[in-house]
Amino acid sequence: MRVIAVANQKGGVGKTTTTFNLGHGLAKRNHKVLLIDLDPQRSLTIQVKLGNQEKNTTTNIFEKSEIIPTYVDGVSIIPATRRLSGIEMTLSNVLGREFILKEAIEKIAKDFDYTIIDCPPNLGILTINALIAAGEVLIPTELDQYSLQGIVDLTETIEKIKKLYNHNILIVGILPFRVNPRRLISKVFLDSIEKLYPGRLCQSQIRVDVSLIEAVGYGRNIFDYQPESHGAQDYDALTVEISERKYV
Ligand SMILES: Nc1ncnc2c1ncn2[C@@H]1O[C@H](COP(=O)(O)OP(=O)(O)O)[C@@H](O)[C@H]1O
Ligand SMILES: [Mg+2]
Questions:
Q1: Is the distance from the beta carbon of residue 173 to the nearest atom of ligand 1 less than 6 Å?
Q2: How close are the terminal C-alpha atoms of the chain, in Å?
Q3: By Cβ atoms counted within 10 A, which residue in 87, 106, 114, 135 is the most buried?
Q4: Which of 178, 223, 229, when mutated, tests ligand 1's pocket best, judged by the most ligand atoms within 8 Å of its CB?
Q5: What are the residue boundaries of the AAA domain, all occurrences included (predicted)?
Q6: Residue 138 class from Cβ within 10 Å (0-12 exposed, 13-18 middle, 19+ buried)?
Q7: Which domains does the chain have, with CATH numbers?
């Protein structure tokens, strides 16, 4: 099983949209997929209409080491609850708190080909749990100066985790999100990313697309909602790229 953390401490850069649609893209190509909502804001959970579920949630993982997925429409999901935001405090004195998610996921590894983790917009203990549980991290980003600085901060955290925990995590891709192909300045940022992180930039890009905004609103994946849209084409390309990615 491959475990991919979708992380970026900035909000609104496409983590949830990417977790959801990459997950469905992989499921449509006959992979068994588990999605984990690790964000107390619960966008993924609300999208799949599990907002009222109190059992079998990510909060349970941290409180009881219990991991029970709920099957929704082609993928399995572990939704979040609001109480997840208090977990940081609850865990502050728990020894080995960084490894709780990893140990839980290992219990059900045989049931899935891919686990994709939707991270919260910060580098706290939940994101650290995700990075330690994952073998790979996918970093969606917009193309501007602040976002570039955000990637630098995130990759520094990843390097620290690698050293501190002797954990080998690979950046599987940096994914340009909400790209306007006509905006020339985008090219400058693409070049900067390629220079800073050679070979890490995804070939695929997620273009600006109103269908994706609508699909989120209706709680539907882009392939079912608008199969001809740019969003569906872009997420299908990403699905193929991620599933075929060979590492260097
Ligand atoms: N291709 C797109 N073009 C424009 N807006 C998009 C696109 N895809 C998603 N969005 C919108 O961007 C917002 C932020 O995306 P989201 O995935 O929730 O980011 P994050 O999880 O990083 O906070 C969503 O509300 C969604 O409506
Ligand atoms: Mg999100």
A1: no
A2: 19
A3: 87
A4: 178
A5: 1-169
A6: buried
A7: 2-244 (3.40.50.300)
